[in-house]
Amino acid sequence: MAKIRGSIVVNIEKCKGCEVCMVTCPTGTIAMAKEVNGKGYNYAFPANPDLCIGCANCAMVCPDGVITVYKTKI
Amino acid sequence: MVMEKELRLMKGNEAVAEAAIRAGVDGYFGYPITPQTEIIEYLMEANPSKTTGMVVLQAESEIAAINMVYGGAACGKKVMTSSSSPGISLKQEGITYIAGAELPCLIVNVVRGGPGLGTIQPAQSDYFQATKGGGHGDYHLIVLAPASVQEMADFVDLSFELAFKYRNPVMMLSDGAIGQMMEKVYLSPQKERSKIVPDWATTGKPATRERNIITSLDLDPDRQEMFNRKLVAKYNEIREKEVRFEEFQCEDAEYLLVAYGTSARVCQKSVQIAREQGIKVGLLRPITLFPFPTKRISNLAAKVKGMLSVEMSAGQMVEDVLLSVNGKVPVYHFGRMGGIVTTPEEVVESLKSKLIGG
Amino acid sequence: MVEFSGIKEIIKPENLVYKKTNIMTENTLSYCPGCGHGTAHRIIAEIIGEEGLQSEAIGVSPVGCSVFMYNYIDIDWQEAAHGRAPAVATAIKRLLPGKFVFTYQGDGDLAAIGTAETIHACNRGENILIIFINNGIYGMTGGQMAPTTLPGMKSSTSPYGRDVKTMGFPLKITDIVATLPGSYYVTRQSVHTAANVKKTKKAIRKAVQYQKLNKGTCLVEIVSNCPSGWKMTPVQSNKWMEENMFPYYPLGDLKTPEELPTK
Questions:
Q1: In whole angstroms, how far apart are CA B85 and each of B94, B334, C172?
Q2: Are residues C74 and B205, on separate chains, in Cβ contact within 8 Å?
Q3: Which of A21, B22, C49, C99 has the most CB atoms in a 10 Å sphere around its CB?
Q4: Cβ–Cβ contacts within 10 Å for residue C210, how many?
Q5: Is the dihedral of CA B249, B251, B254, B257 positive or negative?
Q6: Rounded to whole angstroms, how far apart are CA atoms B56 and B74?
Q7: B26 with B54: CB under 8 angstroms?
Q8: Could C34 and A50 be called an inter-chain contact, meaning their C-beta atoms sit closer than 8 Å?
Q9: Which CATH number is B352's domain given?
């Protein structure tokens, strides 16, 4: 059976660390970085990239449009 | 081919409305208030949406009407509103935004007495409001003061010409007497509505240009000050190039009356009466109140013994006359208030008692 | 651009499923972290792009947090005085009837100072779209009571909670608009979850299509959050919104036209 795999790209300099994407992610792919970006925010990043299914929920709720989503069948 | 002008007998208010249709105005947005309601009534009756395509809309308030003017002007259209003093006060917020966004438009004020609800009779007590800003911030309107029904018609076209030339709101400062009186008026032939779209207009962004933004906001102090300086330069250019006035028997005058609009008509008669009594009086009628004919009045101050500013107000334009004269000769004010039109005899009496003595 | 990527092999153009629309500019949004304004902006920009409306759209931005909306969506804009956007939009649409004209207004702008303009534009059935962001507070001036602030809700001008006896009741202006013969499509949505974003996008797309029919005013209310004004984290604020705002401002259509648009 084909498995759906996803991947996200986060523009971390524009991320404001609101955590809304992290809460929305159904698979626990996203976590907040311990480091801060240039604006002082703990940015979101794909901490568990293998879990991503490319559902794009994170990108849809991101107020700052910093997430790009890719998806493929393996 | 030169088209004949059409002769009609009309109220000043009706003349503005008819002239607006003929000038190819794209939109009128108004709200009823005495003594200028005939303007919107005439437009509704004439129904130019069927002929020229001009939009005529009765708004829910003067505030809405002036903001409709903002929206229409920002599309590069020839749009206007009209009201009378209390309604013009309500429009001030919109007017300062229009000035701040550098939009062209025409605002007609058929002035009535105030303050507050005041009276519905004619007055000239909105001079400060019209020429010194009216709303908040550093800005000026170009202010035209018609003294006849003919000028109420003619100044519609002139207003839009100036408004678009300088990207600045223009106010036609009339009063209840000229708005309501009937005179013969020669009307210009129908013009087509302009198809020219100014490059700054918001009409939908084609791929070929950057987006147009109409706003009066800039939170950066340096940029905002730069914009303020740009406005100042514009107003100075207007002061330099657009002063309009009319002189009546000033050549040998020893005394000068300064009056605009209805008061200027009265003062023509006063000049006659005074001259019959052997007093050499002249009249200067500012047609533009901003820009004010400062230089001409300053020059005349070197020739006359004194000036009397005649206005149907407690004395407003007199301050600009005083500034122009700058102490060279005595300057006094005379005017009736409360909706009372000054009589020519009263003016002569005032001139004699204040300037000549006895 | 500094990026953090997931699995590199999947990141190929043919696998792209979601990317910020280029109708949004590259300017950084001025909103606080987690604020719904950004999401609402993006939905509008996506629809403008997908419906091919960039050259047709004229937006009217309000006074409030979203005053600078013209910096974020790449279309022609007019910035209106506080509350006057529906009057401004009225004239634009009357003079340029072929264009897509919309306003974007907050609760203070639309439901307090601009109540008359809102009600009368809708009552005339102006063929404009009004996007109404209701977060129950004045965000830009620092969290004062809004016409839509809930009973008992604290703000800097209702520090002991909104006392309806002295401060009045929250105004359900969208419900009022729905009763007007001039309004055509009136709905209330939110943008705090992916599912709600999809619904809101569908609603705005419908409103855009309805507007082309010239049958009246469309109003889409988006119940949203204000983490800074409410003094909560963004995630807390979304939860609080579900528990407190939605019961008072229930999501769903308030007025649906019977005639569906033909594309």
A1: 15, 21, 35
A2: yes
A3: A21
A4: 22
A5: positive
A6: 17
A7: yes
A8: no
A9: 3.40.50.920
Residues B88 and B234 in one domain: yes
Whole-angstrom Cα distance, residue C201 to residue B231?
A: 42
Choices 3.40.50.970, 3.30.300.160, 3.40.630.10, 3.40.50.80: CATH for C31-140+149-254: 3.40.50.970
Residue of higher predicted confidence among C4 and C252: C252
Q: What is the pLDDT of residues B263-293, one digit of tens each?
A: 999 999 999 999 999 999 999 999 999 999 9
Task: Assess if residue B156 is contained within a domain.
Answer: yes
**Domain CATH for B90:** 3.40.50.970
Two structure tokens written together for C156: 């800097």
Number of structural domains in chain B: 2
Q: To the nearest whole angstrom, how far is the Cα of C59 from the nearest Cα of chain B?
A: 9
Domain at A54, CATH number:
3.30.70.20
Overall average pLDDT of the B318-340 stretch: 97
**Residues of C with CB below 8 A from B72's CB?**
91-92, 94-95
In tens, the pLDDT along C166-210 reads 999 999 999 999 999 999 999 999 999 999 999 999 999 999 999
Residue in chain C nearest A19 by alpha carbon: C235
Q: Where are the domains of chain C?
A: 31-140+149-254
Q: What would the DSSP string read from start to end of B277-294?
A: TT--EEEEEESEEES--H
Asked if the model's pLDDT at residue A30 lies above 60, the reply is yes
A14 vs C: CB within 8 A: yes
Q: Do A18 and C34 touch (CB under 8 A)?
A: yes
Flag whether B198 is in a domain. no
ipTM: 0.96
Task: Sort out which chain C residues have CB atoms less than 8 A from B60's CB and list them.
Answer: 116-117, 120
Identify the domain containing residue B97 by its residue range: 6-193+230-240
State the DSSP code for C8: G
Burial class (CB in 10 A: 0-12, 13-18, 19+), B134: buried
Do B96 and B234 share a structural domain? Answer: yes
C94–B27 CB contact, under 8 Å:
yes
* CB-closest option in C76, C84, C90 to B202: C76
